[in-house]
Write a structure and sequence with these properties.
The complex is a heterodimer of chains A (about 300) and B (about 230). Chain A is mainly α and about 300 residues long. Chain A contains 11 helices and 2 strands. In chain A, a hairpin with a 2-residue loop joins strand 1 (about 140) and strand 2 (about 145-150). In chain A, helix 1 (about 1-30) packs antiparallel against helix 8 (about 195-220) and helix 2 (about 40-60) packs antiparallel against helix 3. Chain B has about 230 residues and is α/β, with parallel strands linked by helices. Chain B has helices spanning about 40-50, 70-75, 95-100, 115, 120-125, 135-145, 165-175, 190-195, 220-225, and strands spanning about 1-10, 15-25, 30-35, 55-60, 65, 80, 150-155, 180-185, 200-205, 205-215. In chain B, a hairpin with a 2-residue loop joins strand 1 and strand 2. Chain B starts with a strand and ends with a helix.
Chain lengths: ~300, ~230
């Protein structure tokens, strides 16, 4: 029982990372019609940004405030990946709107290029980021079930990110314009909304949150140039299961994939657990082909 | 004042408009009539820059807007009420109106006159646009187009699928609005056209075949041109 609760909790923290990755993907994949295979590499870039910030911090800042580096790292990870996303959108992605299959190939190429770039700079071996000391503590709940501070922090991070996105999308003018452009592009433009700017901004923000996901991953283990690959498939599944266009969809999807995986694994074995979660996804899509939560949206045709 | 000069338009290579000339003056309601599929809605889309227009020119108060992207045309002062209304269904009525203000940064708050014109909107401010009835959506679409105080208002079949009482209301509203802006309207409903319009253009197969002041037009010929 304790062990199961432990698994469940660990699953929740994986869910949180998936959620952070899926938030961006839900927009680019679901609403802009781009299959962004390079999204995993945004996660990787975020993780490496955290690594770089940590090293700089270690070298420059006094030792007693070392722990504070993590907040700087998160901010930097967001900014750096958002910037990379922005550049990619301007140079390449914007020519691919409405061409899902083409975008798959192109972004796959981008993903390989980004991996190799990082490999050239940082070397092929994994690097590790040490988490702040105050997160190393575990909270003993009962028996063998202890919540690790790191994983708890990841959960909080995901929750705060969701909240930030919700506020941005539903309370600001820019968010309103983005939602309008997603629902009916031509009409939004006819009212004076610069839709190209909206695309750029949404893509950058989506990428930025992948960066934060990357930052969170550094807690769970060492990172390497291919770390994004291990999350991209699950992130896509999250989006497909949850449905696009609503945050609640991504949350549900992430919960199913993130918690369901470890739960099945607990009762069976690692590989069988994976198979079972895929079966669940297939069954869900039989009944709700557009995901559990979906809104009507128009693909971008131009 | 909105002027179209020899505008052509094409959908993926096949031409739909063959040199259309239309002028819509401030203080007048100009109607564009014609049978289904002759290019009326395409003309509207050409004005907004939503279809490709290989040649011609479109001027707003003498300045060409022909090469501007859609959102810049809206910002230049064109309010667009499209066919089928195109309300954002997932956004609230208030958000729909606020979006209409995007085109004019000078308008900071929702002008209260709009609620005097369309009292129903004030009541439904927090409802989702998709939950409104057709007539209410049409009123919202007009409100959304005029809150930015455009120089030209273009309407594409505002009476389509709307109950008679609301049609009357829309007629009154646009007649009131014409003192502040030029109004160009595509319309199939001939009685409504004859009642509200000052000037009329008849379109056939992508060309203007007849035009003039509405009260001077040959009504029988008009009827004949529009009947199947």
């Amino acid at each position: 029982m304790d062990l199961f609760l432990m698994q469940l909790f660990n699953g929740l923290s994986v869910s949180s990372i998936l959620l952070l990755a899926a938030l961006g993907l839900a927009i680019t994949f679901g609403l802009m019609g781009i299959i962004n295979m390079a999204h995993g590499e945004f996660i990787m870039i975020g993780a490496y940004t955290a690594y770089v910030v940590q090293n700089i911090w270690k070298a420059v800042m006094p030792e007693n405030i070392f722990d504070a580096y993590f907040f700087a790292a998160m901010l930097a990870a967001f900014i750096v990946t958002a910037a990379v996303g922005l550049i990619l959108e301007r140079l390449i992605i914007r020519h691919l709107y409405g061409r899902a299959i083409d975008s798959l190939l192109v972004t796959w190429g981008i993903s390989l290029a980004l991996q190799q770039t990082v490999r050239s700079i940082f070397g092929p071996t994994n690097v590790s980021v040490s988490a702040p000391a105050f997160l190393d503590k575990n909270i003993q709940v009962m028996g063998m079930f202890a919540m690790s501070g790191k994983r708890l922090f990841i959960l909080v991070m995901a929750a705060v990110s969701c909240l930030l996105i919700a506020v941005f999308m539903y309370k600001t003018k820019q968010g309103r314009n983005i939602r309008a452009a997603m629902q009916n592009r031509e009409m939004a433009a006819s009212l004076g909304v610069n839709t190209a700017k909206c695309d750029m901004l949404t893509f950058a923000i989506g990428s930025g949150f992948a960066g934060i996901a990357g930052c969170a991953i550094t807690f769970l283990g060492p990172i390497g140039p291919t770390i994004g690959q291990s999350y991209i498939v699950d992130a896509f599944m999250t989006v497909v299961v949850g449905g696009v266009g609503r945050i609640i969809g991504s949350i549900t999807g992430a919960a199913i994939i993130g918690v369901g995986g470890p739960t099945f694994e607990f009762f069976t074995s690692a590989s069988l657990g994976k198979v079972m979660i895929f079966i669940v996804v297939i069954i869900i899509l039989q009944f709700r082909p557009k995901g559990i939560f979906s809104i009507r949206s128009r693909a971008l045709d131009d | 004042m909105l002027e179209l000069e020899k505008v052509t338009a094409a959908y993926s290579g096949s031409k739909v408009l063959f040199g259309v000339d239309i002028t819509a003056n401030k203080g007048e309601i100009t109607c564009l009539v014609g049978r289904n599929g002759v290019g009326k809605s395409t003309t509207m889309k050409a004005i907004m820059g939503l279809v490709s227009t290989p040649s011609g020119d479109i001027k707003l108060d003498g300045k060409s807007i022909f090469t501007l992207p859609t959102y810049s045309r809206a910002k230049a002062g064109i309010g667009y009420v499209p066919q089928g209304r195109e309300i954002f269904p997932q956004l609230t009525v208030k958000e729909n109106i606020l979006l209409g203000m995007e085109a004019n940064p000078g308008v900071k708050e929702i002008p209260q006159e709009i609620f005097e014109t369309f009292p129903i909107l004030k009541e439904f401010l927090e409802r989702r646009g998709g939950d409104l009835s057709g007539g209410q959506q049409q009123q919202l679409a007009i409100a959304r187009a005029v809150v930015s105080k455009p120089k030209v208002l273009i309407l594409d079949e505002p009476t389509e699928g709307i109950q008679p009482s609301v049609i009357q209301e829309i007629g009154r509203v646009i007649t009131r609005l014409k003192k502040d802006m030029a109004i160009l309207m595509v319309e199939q409903y001939l009685e409504f056209v004859l009642e509200v319009s000052d000037r009329c253009y008849v379109m056939e197969k992508g060309r203007i075949s007849m035009s003039g002041r509405t009260d001077e037009l040959d009504k029988d010929r008009l009827q004949q041109l529009l009947s199947m």
